[in-house]
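Weekly structure sync - notes
Attendees: PM, LS, DV (DV joined late)
Agenda: review two folding runs queued last week.

Item 1: First target. Sequence and structure tokens pasted below for the record.
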Amino acid sequence: MRRTFDKFFAVVDKIFEFLPFLTLGGMTLLITIQVICRYLLNSPLGWSEELARFGFIWMTFFAGYLGARRAQHISVELVQNLFPRQVKKGMKCVSSLITSAFFLMVVYYLLSLWGKLAAQTSAALNIPMNYIYFGMLLGSVFLGLSYLYDAVRIWLPDDKAPVPGEEVLPE
């Protein structure tokens, strides 16, 4: 079962590794076109800044997922490092469950507001805001699942696997 989930997340990780690159590249191209239009053609685009802002929102959640999967988010481990391995595992498990619950609550509330977001449109692009929040929804779903899997994976039998977020734990 562990291998199935590891394979699933490996595929998702590959997709999410490409998405921030694609989003950042699109934002860079868009902002470059905006600068050219504004300063060389003296005719700024009204919609480009808004689209770049929305792209940044999407990129934040895509990259946030990658940071979570690679255990690269900031954490304070001062108190945690005072305890033996089993207590550390328990603390990591509880922390991952709380974080997973947070992101799954974000998903729940986003879905409960989805109809209102569909009715509201962006100022310059005039597109429904639920398209903009879809990046947040997608990122939150996978962040929640990732942290939930981390919490479960801590206790799955595999002596070779480190506790999520740590390469090697001292005994």
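Item 2: Second target, run right after the first with the same settings.
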Amino acid sequence: MEYSKKLTNYKLQANAGFTLVEFLVVMGTAAVIAAISVSAVIRPQAQADLDGEVLKIISDLKSQQLGAMIGLTSSTTLPTSYGIYFATSTYTLFRGTSYNPSDPENFSVSFPLTVEMQSTTLATSTIIFTRLTGEVYAYFAASSSVVFHNTVSLATSTLTVNRFGALTKTP
């Protein structure tokens, strides 16, 4: 009797564990949950990258407008206009009534790899603030916006400027 009891316990122990099918079902479920959670984490991060970059551009635009209004000068003694030029992966802060790519005083800022300018209605892709008033130089209402997008999440954000230099951001 003692021997048969040991044999039964041995059989139960030998059969304890998971089958291959059970293991594959659990691993498949874990993979699906991991994929959903990773996409739920990446999407907000991509939107935060876009929002952060657009806020940085707004700050730089306001800085350029302020420079024009108070007459900031560096190498000249006369107040001058200030502006910003947009390209697909960068934007450039400049001084003067037109963008000159060879001006050594230009300051270029690169977008993060996940953000780029999608389109613009701005003439020559520039916004120029008039000296002393800070109003947008040669303003035309139909050409006053820049659209940025995130290359990961495909989210977009539009920046629109009015003739006084006030900015509106729409997600």
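Discussion on item 2: The chain has a mean pLDDT of 86.
Action: LS to circulate a short write-up before next sync.
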